[in-house]
Amino acid sequence: METKRTRIIAIDGPAGSGKSTTARLVARKLGFTYLDTGALYRAVTWLALHKNIDLSDEDTIAEAARQAHFEIDSATDKTRVMVDGRDISEAIRMQEISNNVSVVASYPKVRQLMVSLQRKLAAHADVVVEGRDIGTVVFPDADIKIFLTASVEARTQRRMAELREKGVEISFEELKRDLIERDRKDSERASSPLRKADDAIELDTTELSIEQQVDAIVEAFQAQHVA
Ligand code: DC
Question: Which residues pair with residue 204 across a beta bridge?
């Protein structure tokens, strides 16, 4: 019996472009599963730090990731991430992880593992997958590709609000510097840099509310499926 191919909505963009909230809500609206791939790179970074692996040691980090069992559940409002049965959902959002994840995510051996894990995780249901290389590398044949952008000021504001909710106070200028630095590392790395796929729809969200972003993506997806 021929199995029906699942539908895939790929959402990429820089840090703070509203990807996570948007992807989660688009998934909810369409009844799709949501997959936050950044959480997986954060989980590998947590694993490396937890095991005291030198962060410049690509081989040992990749080997530790290969041996680990990752679970991710984004059905509720917060993504739950487990490594070898241990819940690290809160730990992966700490600043120490944010500061080190770009280097871990730059390693081709780590990316290779994560890409195959992401394809497995997305194989059984219709999904909204969010990250940096989803439309270009992980799912180049996704049903629809969205590339979210927003001014660096708007992105910094959003990150500040998110952190404030968690009780973390950080200055606007410091956060802006962090974002610019992370953008630079994510875009300039040799292996699968952050870049808009040629056939992606670019959506500048600087002036958009979350509802407007979500509606724009849902409409674009539905329009393609009617066409
Ligand atoms: O979206 P986020 O901030 O949780 O992502 C964490 C880091 O992981 C980010 O610096 C870039 C990296 N990442 C990646 O390289 N590829 C992805 N598909 C998702 C995230």
Answer: 149
- Any atom of ligand 1 within 6 Å of the Cβ of 16: no
Cβ atoms of 180 and 152 closer than 8 Å: yes
| E strand spans, 58-174 | 70-73, 80-83, 86-87, 127-131, 144-149
CATH classification of the domain holding 84 = 3.40.50.300
Q: Tens digit of pLDDT for each residue in 203-225?
A: 999 999 999 999 999 999 999 87
Stated pTM of the model? 0.92
Give 84-114 pLDDT, tens digit per residue: 999 999 999 988 998 899 899 999 999 999 9
Is 80 contained in some domain?
Answer: yes
37 lines ligand 1 (CB under 6 A): yes
Please identify, by atom number, the ligand 1 atom nearest to the C-alpha of residue 15. Answer: 3
Q: 25 with 34: CB under 8 angstroms?
A: no
